[in-house]
Protein: Yip1 domain-containing protein
Amino acid sequence: MLLQYTWKFFFNSKKAWEEIRDKDCSITRCYLSYLIIIAAIAPISGFFGTTVVGWQIGDGEIVRLSTQSALLIAIIYYFSVLTSVLAISFAIQWMGKTYGSDIPLAQGVKLITYAGTPIMLVGILELYPVLWLNLIVGLLALTYTVYLLYSGVPILFKIPSDKGFLLSSSLVAIGLVTLVSLLGLTAFFWDWGFAPQFV
Structure:
């Protein structure tokens, strides 16, 4: 049930978006039945990968994080994903009027949650933190996420394709701003003593 739309996106994304549009999903229900589970994949995998498996640069020693440090990072990572989905959903609701659609907040949450599924699922690779592998597969997942965003906006919000393209492009820009903001917060936290502790 949890991943039913994920498989449909691969074979018929238009039909999947139509089903999601017609699905009754409040913000609470979207969060509790789907997002809190799928958003936990990467933080849990990252915790295990950085504390148990570790990573290596070239022929150097295997590097691992302390359990306490990795746990703190995983918790912050998890809540950052949940908060980012809600923040971008508010931006969708705010921008909807510009593009001729009165978009409820729950629809924005649906869009970001389901379009972001590939990038959240690929977080399983953090179990084995190899930079080149995570980068290549992550870029493929990001590409598919952007495709789902562009294909889903006109269907989910019932707006013409040209306005959907503009709204999707705006959302990509907002996503990039959100990412840069999270990187800035990371630097801030590291400066205040929350930097990773290696073992």
Q: What stands out?
A: DSSP finds nine helices and no strands in the chain. The CA atoms of residues 26 and 106 lie 6 Å apart. Residues 14-194 form one domain.
